[in-house]
Amino acid sequence: MNGSTGTKKIKFIAIGAFDGMHRAHQELFKRAEAIVVIEKGNAQLTPGKVRCEFTKLPCYFFHLKDIKQLDARGFLHLLQEKFPNLQKIVIGYDFAFGKDRKYSIKDLQELFDGEVEVVPEIKIDGISVHSRVIKEFIKEGKIEEANKLLGRPYMIEGKVVKGQGIGKEKLVPTINLQVHNFLLPKEGVYATKTQIDGKIYKSVTFIGHRITTDGSFAVETHILESFEGEPKSARIYFYAFLRPNKAFDSLDALKRQIMQDIQKAKVVLEQV
User: Which fold is adopted by the domain 154-270?
Assistant: First the structure.
């Protein structure tokens, strides 16, 4: 569990899996003093404690494997034990809990002496703000649509690893990332920003199989600004899908395309 605020003082909590910490989740947080994350271990938009970076509220984690055998009364007792002055529980319209999501909002309302505030479905441009919807957009390369529901640019992070070496010598220099736990967007080229050691640089990023060269899968980002150094890790923020992954007849043809990608990325990034 994580958080700096003493739990005895906390009266209002928001509960959920909160993968994404998106705009609908933020509506719950406006009504709470702390966040209780039910960690299922399958978060891909904001895995683990990455969630804590997208809120000013203290975050407390309950791992599903530790609580899934509890019935509704046992789950509520656990919450009240952790937050002895609990007066209000804030949940989303589709909240369910317990083994196989057996228990509903109605069960929580019947058992809890305090207030259960249910935040209704949030829609933007007629689209439900839901982690499932955002994930589908990302898988399809629809970055602008995903970002609109997230309320921020989609981000991944990873460890910097050694690349195949062709980029710096014959194409453009890139930083190669090994990414775990985060959902990767559709294969292709993206206008991005890359954060290294706290500083953010404009960049263009490729995700996919390097079908023109060695065929291996890669996440590699080319920094568009002056940059030197050998970072150990990096974050990539996605702004727009530029083109799908495709094969080229030669490295020269690939390089010409990369130059075009860079110009497109610069145009996009001038506007964000």
Answer: Elongation Factor Tu (Ef-tu); domain 3 (2.40.30)
